[in-house]
């Protein structure tokens, strides 16, 4: 990773923020800012939560919840993949053992 940093201005809920990041992460930062802005606007639109700080906390909680749910789903896929690979490996081992028996 480069030691260079780039300062970007991102707009979140009609406010500008200067944020520094490595050049290779600029697009990800922009995407993150757009996501946060949209989530905060959605929360503000409901009218149930007042104040930028509270809206930001609710948006952060919602995004964290989505992240945790996605991580759990991926962990489930990892377990399934591991089981499938174990079965495939066992099948290969049996086939190799059978082939060795034929060579005898």
Précis, in short:
The chain contains two helices and two strands, in the order E-E-H-H. It has about 100 residues and is of the alpha+beta class. A two-stranded antiparallel sheet has the order 1-2.
Description:
The chain has 104 residues and is α+β, with helices and mostly antiparallel strands. The chain has a single domain (6-103), classed as Double Stranded RNA Binding Domain (2-Layer Sandwich). 70% of the residues lie in helices and 13% in strands. The chain has 2 helices and 2 strands, in the order E-E-H-H. The protein has a two-stranded antiparallel sheet with strand order 1-2. A hairpin with a 2-residue loop joins strand 1 (6-12) and strand 2. The longest helix has 52 residues, at 52-103. It is elongated and about 80 Å long.
């Amino acid at each position: 990773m480069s030691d260079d940093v780039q300062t970007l201005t991102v707009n979140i809920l009609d406010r500008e923020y200067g944020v520094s990041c490595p050049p290779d992460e600029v697009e990800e930062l922009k995407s993150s800012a757009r996501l946060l802005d949209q989530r905060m606007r959605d929360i503000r639109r409901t009218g149930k939560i007042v104040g930028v700080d509270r809206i930001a906390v609710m948006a952060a909680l919602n995004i964290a919840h989505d992240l945790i749910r996605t991580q759990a789903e991926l962990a489930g896929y990892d377990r399934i993949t591991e089981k499938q690979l174990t079965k495939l490996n066992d099948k290969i081992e049996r086939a190799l053992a059978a082939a060795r028996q034929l060579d005898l």
